[in-house]
Structures are given as C-alpha cells and as structure tokens.
Automatic annotation (TrEMBL):
Protein name as it appears in the record: Integrin beta
Annotated Basic and acidic residues bias: 487-506
Stored Gene3D superfamilies: Laminin (2.10.25.10), ligand-binding face of the semaphorins, domain 2 (3.30.1680.10), ntegrin, alpha v. Chain A, domain 3 (2.60.40.1510), von Willebrand factor, type A domain (3.40.50.410)
Species classification: Eukaryota, Metazoa, Chordata, Craniata, Vertebrata
Domain PSI span(s) in chain numbering: 33-82
Disulfide pattern: 34-460, 42-52, 45-81, 55-70, 197-204, 252-293, 397-408, 458-462, 520-525, 522-555, 527-540, 561-566, 568-577, 579-586, 600-605, 602-650, 607-617, 620-623
TM annotation in the entry: 673-699
Cytoplasm is among the record's keywords: no
The entry's keywords: Calcium, Cell adhesion, Cell membrane, Disulfide bond, EGF-like domain, Glycoprotein, Integrin, Magnesium, Membrane, Metal-binding, Repeat, Signal, Transmembrane, Transmembrane helix
GO molecular function, a single term: metal ion binding
GO biological process, one term: cell migration
Domain of life: Eukaryota
Entry-linked Pfam families: EGF_integrin, EGF_Teneurin, Integrin_beta, PSI_integrin
Family: Belongs to the integrin beta chain family.
Length: 762
C-alpha cells in the first residue's frame, strides 16, 4: 500500500472539514452581507448591494441600533417587518415598443438602478439585403501624393460600375487636407504661404487643415470633374493632419451631405503618419478639441485654434455619426496605421503600393462586404458617469456566423444578430443624489442606435411619509452607538438614580428598567448590544439568539430567532427548523408515501402497521403473501368527488375487503405455523436415527477382532502378503516375581491359525 493510499482517509477527512468550513463561511457571509455597524441610514443600506433592504417600520426591533434595520428581505420579514415598509433595490427595465425600426430594435430603453445592482436587456440588429452607400474620399494632397492623386481621376466611374453588384444607390463626396497652417508644420515665409511650392517653380494650393470640396452626390460625372481640378499642396514636417480632417468630415453632416438611411464609408488616403493629440503644443496650441464642426465656407477654421483630436474623441464621433472608416495607406506606413485601427472600432486598413484605381476599388468593395458580414456594437456612457457604471456585451450569432469578442462575423443578408447587454452601477455621485445618465448602444456602421436612459436611485423614499425609521436622534439621547459603560446592567439593577421617572421603561410586574438589558432614555428603552445577537423590544425583553440550536447553528441555520422562537424558512418546520415540510424523502420506490403503510414525520417514515419496518415501511416478514393493496386501497382513498351514497358504498366495500384480507392472512399464518412444527419434528426424528446408526457401526468396529472383520471390510491379501502371515499365532507372556529376581518364569502359549469365521474360545 502506497503512502497516498494509507493517507487517503485522512485526506478525505481534511477535504470534508475544508468543505464544511467553506460552506459555513459562505452561509455566514450571506447572512452578514447587508448588516454592518457602519450602516446608519437607508442610503447606506442599499449601497451594500442589490440583495439588501431597509425596514422603515417605526416599531421594528424597538430599541435596537439603526444598523439592524438593514438586512436581507426574508430576514426582515421573519423579524416582523411588513413588506410595505421595506425599501428595496428594485431594478426596472422598460422597453419602448412604439418606435419602429428596420435595423436596430428596440430604439429606447429605460432602466432604474441602485448601487450594486445590474440590469440586462437584448438589442437586435438585422442585416438588410441592400443598402444605399455614401462614400467620402478624404485625400492627402501634400506634394508627395501628386502621382496618387492623378490615379484618382478615373476611379469614380469604375467604382460606380463595380458597386452596382451590391447597391443601386451609390453617392460620392470629396475633401482634402494637408496640415495645420502654422509653424512649425508649414513654412511661414511670405513667399510660401500662398504658394508652398514656389521654390520648385510649381503653382500649389496653400496648406490647409481640411477643405470640404464636394458634397455627397449621385452624379458620378460631377465627381470626376471635381477630381480633375484638384492640385497638390505642401508642408514641412512628415506627419499630416489626417485625423483632424477626419473628425470634421464626420461631424459636419449637413455640409458633407451624409444621408440618414445610407451606409457611410469614410476613405482616408495618405502616404504619411498622422499627428496625434498634444502635437499642436509645438505651435503653441493648447486648447483641446471640442468635437464640433468648425467649417466656414467649407474651410476648417478651427485648425489654428484647437489641438488635434484624441483617438478616444475621434472614435466616439465616428460611432455617434455612424461612420465606417477605411484607411488606404502606402505600404511603408502600414505598421503605424495597423496599431491605430485597433483603437478605432470598425476600421479597415488597406496596404497599397500605388493608389491605382483597381486597387482602390477592391479595397472599397471588400470594406463594404465586411461591413455587411460583420455586426458589432459599441456602448458609450456619458463622461460624467463613466466611472460609476460597467457594461458587459455577449453576442448571440445566427447560424453560419462566428462570434468574436463583441461581434459576429459571416452574417448573411436578412439574418439578425442579438446582443445580450448587462449594465451595472458601481456607486452614486459624490453628493449622494439621484441622477439621470444617458447611454448609447451603437451597431458599428449602422445609422440607427439604441438609447438607454438610466435612472440612478441613491436616495430612499421610505413610503408616503418619507420617514426612514427614526434616523433623527432624540435630543435627550447621549449616543446611538449602544449603552455606555456606566449605564450597563449590574446584577439585574441599572445604575440609574432616577427610577421613578423611568417607570415607562419597566414591564408590568418588573422592578428592573428595560429587563436589565438596556438603559432608559427619554422614557424609552435603548437596548444594549450583545455579541450573541440583537436585543430588542419595548422593554428589551426579546432577542434573536435565545432559540434552540441544531448542529451548532441557531435554528439549524434555516431560520431566524424571533422572541425566543424559530421562524423557519420556507420548506422547514419544527422547534429548531430541522424538519422538512416536503414529503419527498418518504416516498418509496413505488411512489407511495411510506409504502402506503405509514406517515411521514419530520422527513422520516413512521409505520402505522406494527408488523412493518424499514426506512419506507417496506419490510414485513409475516405478511409477504399479502398484496400491497391490502395496506391501502387505492380505489377507496380516491373516492373524492363521488356522491354520498357512492362514497358510503366505497367505504363499506373497502372495509369488507380489508377485513377479508385480514382473516385470510390470519388463516394463512396459522397453517404455516403447523407445517413448520411438523417439519421440525420430522427432522428431529431423522437426526436421531442417523446418530443411532452411526454409533452402532462404530461400536461394532471396535469390538470385532482384527482378523475376523478384515474379510467383511473388504480387505484382500495378495500372494506376496501371504508369505508373511505365520501359520500359528504365538503369544509369549512373561511373569516376574520378586524372588528370585534373576530367575524369571516364562510361559509360551501357541495359538493355532483360525479361520476368519471362527471365534475365540476360552
């Protein structure tokens, strides 16, 4: 046996002990999940968790601390708090089904939360067969993009023809950018402000942060004509202002002409990285971007006044305006933008050697297919409350698609994706007041969203009166944290000199204030605290620990102690809540209660028939021939609903049936007893005969001579054996006398050989 096998019983014992300790700790933790000495108000109580409730019933646990008003609802109810006097963390979710939607539903949801609580709801996103598409080209027109800009002049018609396979309504728009027109991003030499390419003897456009050139149009010829008129510009540093221009193209919806019902694609084309937030400090610009549109005559006027937007701000604005960004970058900058798109939900990155028309068309078509096949959502909360809430999103993808993080890929047109969203509240505002928070659920790339209106309840109403259980202290009370050392009971007498004025603190027939377990203040008892439990009552005469214990736990751990009696949980009863009310533990294998021959008492069968035994009264050695139906007649006990005459007839028949069964069982038992007696007698006689026969045979064998019985016993001698048999049997008998000792007398007797049939003769 190995050491592990030898120690196996010890391991099992230790494992059981650990399991018991863990279960006991969990039970204790659940019981104390709400109560705490630091809880002094309803608001404090409800912040302990959604499972907690506050009892504002005025006479609840009279004389105890305010902290005992906070507990689990079941415990409060058992201790006498009525449900209408409980302030609870009720979570409400209301869905507005009146607003119709073709893609995202529901459109509006209202939620009521408290700190520690959470609510779940489902948002459905349906993929349509065909969508109108708006595609906005945002192009870097710095000098290094001259060759690429020429390739764009023919992309309009080719792209329109290619997209007819996926949509019959394609609109195009165009805008350009370079960088912020301030030093050190551009040259501020007078000769280069209007023409930054003057040193190359080329006429260029002035540098600009963003210039909106062409609003959305379905006229592809107009798009091609505008593209042919575009000229390049120039700047000094390598990074460009692409992200700054992208934000303006997203938020300036009226100027750009984004259609509400269309899928919106924003294609950024550049061969350099982009400036990020805080880069503008090099030019002395320290004002953060406000995320608003600042176009004047289609020119971005805030370029020299505000910093570049942060990636977080850009991401929010793209989602808020349902923009799906596409980055077409030169292959040398692919790695830089690869890290960037991870921070912008729904972004697509394309690596192109030269921005030729076929490559751009493939990039746009692939991005559109991905937009349709991948459904994802993004949840945003107001900045003022983002730290006080948490959100969890779980997609439920249709058949044939794959779930990944918060999205489903491979979704086919006409399929619906469901998102199970859970919102939870961590805490209340610093002022502790109620607040309203707005949350948005954005399906990425869709022009519809779900608005979540959250009502955060941090205060307690406590019923129509608004009184939460006497939180205000009486002016004559010194402290609400318990009984002071000088006021504690001493051998049944209080150290209080003014006993007569405190007569209202004495129970009838008692000479002790507050039953010796509290102090009298302002004519009312303030009960002392006890390590065993709560002392309460008008005269501190009640507690929640003077109840029977079961297996070391008060009320067996299945109830609470109220006024010295256990108030059991549902499903338990008894003085110590040790008896289950359910009778399932008494059902035998045949489905009957105690095999139909007993009663279920405290979860165990008590047999009504003295001849029966066993856990389910299933054993009966003396009534094996009696059918089970004799214990309980099913027909008789199912006579409910019959008329009075039919019921009487049933009862009479059943009584006769049971009586006849009883008589027959007695006759059968008597016959079996007689048979048993006769069998025992016969066996006794037989055994006696066998013993006598065996004894006789043994006696004969003992008295027979050796030679005589040999033949009868079947002993046969061979020829070899006969040579050793003497013809005569000789027996020598020697007699010795004392004198003379040296002359013994010897006598020889010769016995002739006898036949086996002869007997000895003397």
């Amino acid at each position: 046996m190995t050491s592990w096998q030898r120690s196996r019983p010890l391991r099992v014992l230790l494992l059981c002990c650990v399991a018991f300790v863990v279960c006991a700790a969990a039970s204790s933790g659940g019981a104390r999940a709400c109560w705490s000495p630091s809880v002094t108000s309803c608001a404090d109580c409800l912040q302990r968790g959604p499972q907690c409730a506050w009892c504002f019933q005025e006479d609840y646990l009279h004389g105890t601390e305010q902290s005992h008003r906070c507990d689990l609802p079941d415990n409060l109810r058992r201790r006498g708090c009525r449900p209408e006097f409980m302030e609870r963390s009720d979570v409400k979710v209301e869905v507005d089904a009146t607003l119709n939607s073709t893609q995202v539903s529901p459109r509006e949801i209202s939620i009521t939360l408290r700190p520690g609580s959470e609510a779940s709801f489902v948002v459905a996103v349906k993929q349509l067969e065909r969508y109108p598409v708006d595609l906005y080209y945002l192009v870097d027109v710095s000098a290094s993009m001259q060759e690429n800009l020429d390739h764009l002049k023919t992309v309009g018609v080719a792209l329109s023809l290619r997209m007819t396979q996926h949509t019959s309504d394609l609109w195009l728009g165009f805008g350009s950018f370079v960088d912020k027109p301030v030093s050190p991003f551009i040259s501020v030499h007078p000769s280069k402000i209007d023409n930054p390419c003057s040193e190359y003897q080329i006429r260029c456009r002035p540098a600009h942060g963003f210039h909106h050139v062409l609003s959305m149009t379905g006229n592809i010829s107009e798009f091609t004509r505008v593209m042919k008129r575009q000229r390049i510009s120039a700047n000094v540093d390598t990074p460009e202002g692409g992200l700054d221009a992208m934000l303006q193209a997203a938020v300036c919806q009226r100027a750009v002409g984004w259609r509400p019902e269309a899928k919106r694609l924003l294609l950024l084309m550049t061969d350099q990285p982009s400036h990020l937030a805080l880069d503008s400090r090099l030019a002395g610009i320290v004002t953060p971007h406000d995320g608003r549109c600042h176009l004047d005559s289609n020119v971005y006027t805030g370029s020299t006044k505000m910093d570049h937007p942060s990636l977080g701000l850009l991401s929010d604005k793209l989602l808020e305006n349902h923009i799906y960004p596409i980055f077409a970058v030169e292959k040398m900058q692919y790695q830089w933008y690869e890290e960037l798109v991870k921070l912008l939900p729904g972004s697509i990155l394309g690596k192109l050697g030269l921005f030729q028309a076929p490559n751009l068309i493939d990039l746009v078509v692939d991005a559109y297919k991905k937009l349709l096949s991948e459904v994802a959502v993004s949840v945003s909360v107001e900045d003022k409350a983002v730290s006080r809430y948490w959100v969890s999103v779980s997609p439920i993808c249709p058949r044939g698609s794959t779930a990944k993080d918060q999205s489903c890929s491979g979704v086919q047109p006409g399929q619906t994706v469901y998102f199970n969203i859970t919102v939870g509240q961590r805490s209340c505002p610093d002022d502790g007041e109620d607040e309203d928070v707005r949350m948005l659920v954005h399906p990425v790339g869709y022009n519809e969203s779900t608005v979540i209106s959250i009502r955060s309840k941090c205060q307690c109403k406590c019923g129509p009166t608004g009184r939460c259980g006497g939180n205000d202290l009486s002016p004559c009370r010194g402290s609400h944290h318990g009984v002071s050392q000088e006021q504690r009971p001493d051998h049944g007498h209080m150290k209080d000199s003014s006993s007569e004025p405190n007569r209202s603190c004495k129970a009838d027939g008692s000479n002790v204030n507050c039953s010796g377990r509290g102090v009298c203040e302002c004519g009312k008892c303030v009960c002392e605290q006890s390590r065993l439990g709560v002392v309460y009552g008008k005269y501190c005469e009640m507690d929640d620990f003077s109840c029977p214990y079961e297996k070391g736990q008060l009320c067996g751990g299945r109830g609470v102690c109220v006024s010295g009696e256990c108030v059991c949980e549902v499903g338990w009863t008894g003085d110590s809540c040790s008896c289950p009310t359910s009778e399932t533990s008494c059902q035998s294998a045949d489905g009957l209660l105690c095999s139909g021959c007993g009663k279920c008492v405290c979860g165990k069968c008590v047999c009504t028939d003295p001849k029966r035994s066993g856990d389910f009264c299933e054993r009966c050695p003396t009534c094996q021939l009696i059918p089970k139906s004799s214990c309980k007649s099913v027909d008789c006990h199912h006579s409910r609903g019959l008329s009075q005459k039919e019921a009487e007839l049933c009862n009479t028949t059943c009584a006769l049936h049971i009586g006849s069964k009883t008589d027959s069982s007695e006759r059968v038992s008597s016959g079996r007893l007689v048979g048993t007696f006769l069998c025992v007698c016969a066996l006794t006689v037989l055994c006696g005969l066998v013993v006598v026969a065996v004894s006789r045979l043994l006696l004969q064998k003992k008295v027979m001579p050796r030679g005589g019985a040999g033949a009868d016993l079947g002993y046969h001698c061979t020829g070899k054996d006969l040579s050793y048999i003497p013809t005569t049997n000789e027996k020598t008998v020697t007699y010795r006398r004392d004198r003379p000792p040296d002359q013994p007398v010897e006598m020889h007797i010769q016995v002739p050989k006898m036949s086996l049939d002869d007997h000895w003769q003397f």
